[in-house]
Amino acid sequence: MAAAERGKRVAQNERDEANEELTSANSAKNSLTDEKKRLEARVTALEDEMEEEAGNTELAVEKARKLQTQVRVLHLQKCSS
């Protein structure tokens, strides 16, 4: 009978340890899932910023071209006067 009780306690301890490991693993998984979501949101935000900056760059380049054209026109007007 004592051997059966010891066996039962050992089995219960092993079960408890397995449950603790499972709880720990689930906690780690949840933390990683949360971190993944946070990083995905950050990537999306950075992609949006990159698109906005690309648009701003295109506008700046176009403005620079127009200014260069104006400078050429003014230079030609000055030279022909």
Structural description of this entry:
This protein has 81 residues and is mostly helical. It is 98% helix and 0% strand. It has 1 helix and no strands. It has one helix at 2-80. The protein is rod-shaped. It starts with a helix and ends with a helix. The model has no long low-confidence stretch (mean pLDDT 96).
Helix/strand-derived class?
Answer: mainly alpha
What is the arithmetic mean of pLDDT?
96
Percent of residues in helices: over 70%
Q: Report the count of strand segments.
A: 0
Number of helices: 1
What is the 3D shape? rod-shaped
Strand residue percentage = under 5%
Listing every helix as H and every strand as E from the N terminus to the C terminus, the arrangement reads: H
Low-pLDDT residue spans: none
Distance between the amino and carboxyl termini = 119 Å
Rg measurement, Å: 35 Å
Major sheet, described briefly?
none
